[in-house]
Amino acid sequence: TRTTDPRHISYPCLFSRKKERMSAAGLSPLTSQKGITETWLGEILTHKFRKEALVTAFSAKAPLSRDGFLSEICYVEVIYSTQAGKDQRVSLVVKFLPEGPEVREFVKEANLGQREVEFYNYSNSKEFKTFCKKSGLPHPVPKIYWSGLTDDALTIVLHNLNMDGYRMVNPAEGNNIEQIMSVLRSIAVIHSAGVANMRRHGSHHTLDIPFDSSVLLELLHKGLDIQDNMYANTHWAEILALVRTRAVDLVNIAKKHPLFSTIIHSDLWTGNVMFSADDHTAAIIDWQFAQIGNPICDIITLLFMSAHPTVYTYHLDQVLSCYWERLTSAMKMNDLPMNVTYQQLRDNVERLWMYGYMFLTASLPDLLPNNKITEERFRAVVTFLHDRRAFTAFLNS
What we know:
This protein is of the alpha+beta class. The chain has helices at 15-22, 38-49, 101-109, 112-123, 126-134, 177-201, 214-230, 236-245, 247-251, 253-256, 295-306, 309-314, 316-333, 342-351, 353-367, 375-387, 390-395; strands spanning 9-10, 54-61, 72-81, 88-96, 144-149, 154-159, 211-212, 262-264, 273-275, 282-284, 291-293. Pfam families: EcKL.
């Protein structure tokens, strides 16, 4: 997640109520990598394995490049032993609050730490693990060792997927269809598990945190400024001017077209995905923006933010069917009714194409300068939307 991309601002309505439970293991979150000790790591491993673990050595290092990460992270290699006495190794990724005061304040005010800790606590639950195992996808997110949050500190300890051959693949020209379908299979299981979780625990969900869209609106206007330069002296300049007058409606378009509610990622692109060596499996990371919402938002965000244009232009039915088959299969394997049809899902995608355009436009100020997307790929999105008459439908709504 990018430091310049605070798209979902929320109000701190649940922070203090959850603080005690988040640190219930008796562990304390750290303010930085400097706080990591053998004793602290031993407590983490003891908590995870539910048996005493003695750390005999460890090394911690920060990544060579931050590459726009919102959080501070480090990689930790640990040698430990249990009662059996044999040395064992484990590789971890540890996340902290950002160091910069402005970003740190944003994370706190937006409850991003709370969102991520709540999600990982949920993903570490027996309920979630059992659901995913029954669905045939045991680990759609990294294994969590521990997460903790206080007013001044955040720490999330995860399994280092790099040690399993996983890597990040987000080329500027876009991901191929196999990679996109891998992500859709993973997010479909998470979406279906979210439906089960909400049905079990009711409407007052810990991730149902409201957000203020004013920052998103500000980023949208900055992205439109970039497009003004792209399309200067063309007929698209007039369309962009009309879109700008409807910016508030564009930011809130998902509320106008609901399908069903579940736990969604809200920032789903391949910069937040780790792929297996064969690209067949995708683990979704960085859940700072997790919330309750329409799952179609995740699908369209992934397509426009990450997919090569040929994926959604020529293979849309294939990728949507891939998502639908995994979603309905996971629901069936866990004895849950599916209350919408594929055609309803397909229709909702058509109604929410402009949500994807909005999200991508708000991301342009970060993506283009950092070569996360080419101008050609952005133009392909605009052409696709024009061909589907999405701009016309939105402006006439």
